[in-house]
Specification:
5 strands; single chain; alpha+beta; Trna Endonuclease, Chain: A, domain 1; 2 helices; 5-stranded mixed beta sheet; 30% helix
């Protein structure tokens, strides 16, 4: 399986996992020139932007650690653009989550990082 197929499979697994826990998935693979967001959903009153990271085993480190500051900034820029396109008001709370998948283990890190301003 190539890298893109593995990523797509991980995103599908994450979407199913989140939906089973009450998140309404609004969009998958939102892309813009500003960045990309793997999943966008609604959960407990929040508009949630989700980054999915997958590692096949324990030798590659914690998948959540791959969401570094630079990646967070790209996600925030894409989220801002998504909110602009969909005319989401400032009164709608936003959350940035990470779903870390390692082998069979899935961890959902809610509010994994704050909105980036720079």
């Amino acid at each position: 399986m190539d890298k893109r197929s593995v990523g797509a499979a991980g995103e599908s697994l994450a979407a199913e996992y989140l939906a089973a826990r009450g998140m309404q998935i609004l969009e998958r693979n939102f892309k813009s020139r500003r960045g990309e967001v793997d999943l966008i959903g609604r959960h407990e009153g929040y508009l949630v932007f989700v980054e999915v990271k997958y590692r096949s085993g324990g030798t590659s480190g914690d998948p959540a650690e791959a969401v570094d500051r630079r990646k967070q900034q790209r996600i925030c820029r894409a989220a801002d653009y998504y909110r602009y396109l969909h005319r989401t008001g400032e009164d709608v709370p936003v959350r940035y989550d990470v779903v870390a998948i390692r082998g069979e283990e899935i961890r959902w890190l809610q509010n994994a990082f704050p909105h980036c301003t720079a």
